[in-house]
């Protein structure tokens, strides 16, 4: 038992004040030390994770504005292009493709077909002036014909599949329905992707094989000045290849190589191209392909309905002497003299 007199014992106020002040000071110093230690630990953690601090500091209106503008370095990813959340160049590509390349290609192809149709109605086929002799001259070797038809077949398949992917959604989708259109579009895409490299190889062989006969000379200048004999009764002289055939060869060589190179860029994304590079290649590929298709209409017209007997040389390899004299007289004289 504690004596009651101890409980009733009273100390002076100033005697109790000093210990209380000392206790308060000690507690304050201890709390300050804990706070400083916590701040130091937080600072070390923040230094160890700079990306997290950056994201946190920008997680506001300015941060999202920068994201919408396509700025890079706004994520923790260090992979190439993975630190750009929004690819703003994609919208520019879409505008160029839909508002410029697509309609311009349609105008070019439609305009070319219209001009050829009008020309055929007004002028008609370029027929032989003299009857066929029945004697033929070999114009194309079997390898040349096989090479031509291989490249031509690949070109037609690639043209149809490419035009389907570019324009098909405007009319084929509604006509075929979503399911059938989707399967056809996938088939076109696969054909385009896998046959494209074969076309590149065939075109390169064709360019190397036929280049020696396609350099321009003064005879070709006269041929162009006389309209290639398509209008009127004049038949300008020409060697093994006339000016028009040479012009088509160089269009196919230059524009065709642009089509091939840009197509390979898109066909092999594992070359680690940037997205912007792929988009630019797509625009170049589309524009060059549409130009080449439009130009091919003229070549096909002249080689079939436009000129009597022209297709025979590329089907069976031989042409009638009357045709050779009329369209390639210089070459015919060379062949005759050799015999």
Automatic annotation (TrEMBL):
Write out the annotated subcellular location. Answer: Cell membrane
What is the designated name of this protein? Formate dehydrogenase subunit gamma
Traced from the root, the source organism's taxonomic lineage reads:
Bacteria, Pseudomonadati, Pseudomonadota, Gammaproteobacteria, Oceanospirillales
GO BP term, example: anaerobic respiration
Tell me which InterPro entries the record gives: Cyt_b561_bac/Ni-Hgenase, Di-haem_cyt_TM, FDH_cytochrome_b556_subunit, Formate_DH_gsu
Protein keywords:
Cell membrane, Electron transport, Heme, Iron, Membrane, Metal-binding, Signal, Transmembrane, Transmembrane helix, Transport
Span of the signal peptide: 1-37
The record gives the membrane topology as: Multi-pass membrane protein
Annotated transmembrane regions: 104-123, 149-171, 191-211, 247-269, 281-302
The record's listing under SUPFAM superfamilies reads: Transmembrane di-heme cytochromes
Q: Does the keyword Transmembrane apply?
A: yes
* Ranges of residues in domain Cytochrome b561 bacterial/Ni-hydrogenase: 139-317
């Amino acid at each position: 038992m504690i004596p009651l007199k101890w409980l009733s014992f009273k100390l002076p106020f100033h005697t109790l004040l000093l210990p209380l002040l000392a206790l308060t000071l000690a507690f304050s110093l201890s709390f300050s030390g804990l706070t400083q230690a916590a701040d130091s630990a937080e600072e070390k953690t923040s230094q160890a994770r700079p990306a997290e601090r950056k994201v946190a500091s920008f997680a506001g209106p300015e941060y999202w504005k920068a994201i919408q503008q396509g700025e890079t370095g706004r994520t923790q990813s260090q992979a190439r292009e993975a630190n750009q959340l929004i690819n703003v160049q994609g919208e520019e590509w879409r505008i160029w493709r839909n508002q410029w390349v697509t309609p311009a290609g349609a105008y070019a192809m439609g305009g070319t077909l219209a001009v050829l149709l009008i020309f055929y109605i007004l002028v008609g086929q370029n027929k032989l002036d003299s009857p066929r002799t029945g004697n033929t001259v070999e114009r194309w070797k079997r390898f040349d014909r096989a090479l031509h038809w291989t490249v031509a077949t690949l070109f037609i398949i690639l043209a149809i599949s490419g035009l389907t992917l570019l324009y098909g959604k405007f009319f084929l989708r509604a006509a075929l329905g979503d399911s059938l259109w989707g399967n056809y579009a996938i088939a076109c895409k696969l054909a385009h992707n896998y046959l494209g490299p074969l076309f590149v190889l065939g075109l390169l062989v064709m360019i190397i094989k036929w280049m020696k006969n396609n350099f321009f000379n003064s005879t070709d200048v006269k041929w162009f000045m006389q309209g290639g004999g398509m209008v009127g009764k004049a038949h300008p002289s020409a060697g093994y290849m006339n000016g028009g055939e040479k012009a088509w060869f160089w269009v196919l060589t230059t524009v065709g190589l642009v089509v091939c190179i840009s197509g390979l860029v898109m066909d092999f994304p594992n070359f680690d191209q940037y997205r912007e590079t792929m988009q630019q290649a797509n625009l170049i590929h589309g524009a060059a392909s549409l130009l080449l298709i439009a130009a091919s209409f003229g070549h096909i017209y002249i080689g079939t309905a436009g000129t009597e007997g022209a297709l025979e040389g590329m089907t069976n390899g031989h042409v009638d002497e009357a045709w050779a004299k009329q369209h390639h007289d210089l070459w015919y004289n060379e062949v005759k003299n050799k015999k």
